[in-house]
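hiii so um. not sure if this is the right channel but i have a protein structure encoded as tokens and i wanna go backwards to a sequence. like what aa goes where. can anyone help
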């Protein structure tokens, strides 16, 4: 059973664009539908982690909004940080699902129970993951991943029931 979902930010939770204003503020756009699925994942008693190679106040704000359990920014060796998180919460890597889109995600994706990549991921990543999603990063890939996991885990009906049952 998957207990922890690990997310990369740029290229997975966003489309990978980074925009700077004249005042040097950074802008990122997150997909509300992705966020909706992540909040429901948490409602099912599961854990969330963001492990990203960059650091951004915007990501910290989004993580707080989503109820992310572990926010790890400016991480160069993502798989090492994931191992420490797993040890802290007492789960094995086989109980982790992760999404990544580029070479800095490769080792982390190879270490988890089930790996995902958005449709527009780097070619080597697309070839090496367990599930290649049909949606690109920032455009519903995270929601597609969550719903794929919930179907595999037999939790999809419970997920739907939050909204379909009176």
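sure thing!! here u go:
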């Amino acid at each position: 059973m998957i207990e922890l979902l690990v997310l990369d930010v740029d290229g997975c939770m966003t489309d990978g664009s980074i925009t700077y204003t004249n005042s040097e503020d950074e802008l990122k756009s997150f997909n509300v539908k992705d966020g909706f699925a992540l909040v429901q994942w948490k409602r099912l008693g599961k854990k969330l982690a963001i492990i990203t190679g960059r650091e951004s106040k915007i990501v910290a704000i989004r993580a707080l909004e989503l109820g992310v359990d572990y926010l790890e920014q400016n991480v160069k060796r993502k798989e090492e940080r994931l191992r420490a998180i797993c040890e802290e919460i007492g789960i094995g890597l086989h109980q982790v699902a992760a999404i990544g889109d580029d070479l800095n995600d490769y080792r982390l994706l190879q270490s988890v129970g089930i790996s995902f990549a958005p449709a527009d991921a780097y070619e080597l990543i697309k070839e090496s993951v367990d599930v290649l999603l049909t949606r690109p990063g920032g455009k519903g890939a995270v929601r597609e991943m969550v719903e794929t996991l919930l179907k595999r885990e037999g939790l999809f009906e419970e997920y739907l029931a939050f909204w379909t049952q009176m």
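oh and The chain has a mean pLDDT of 96.
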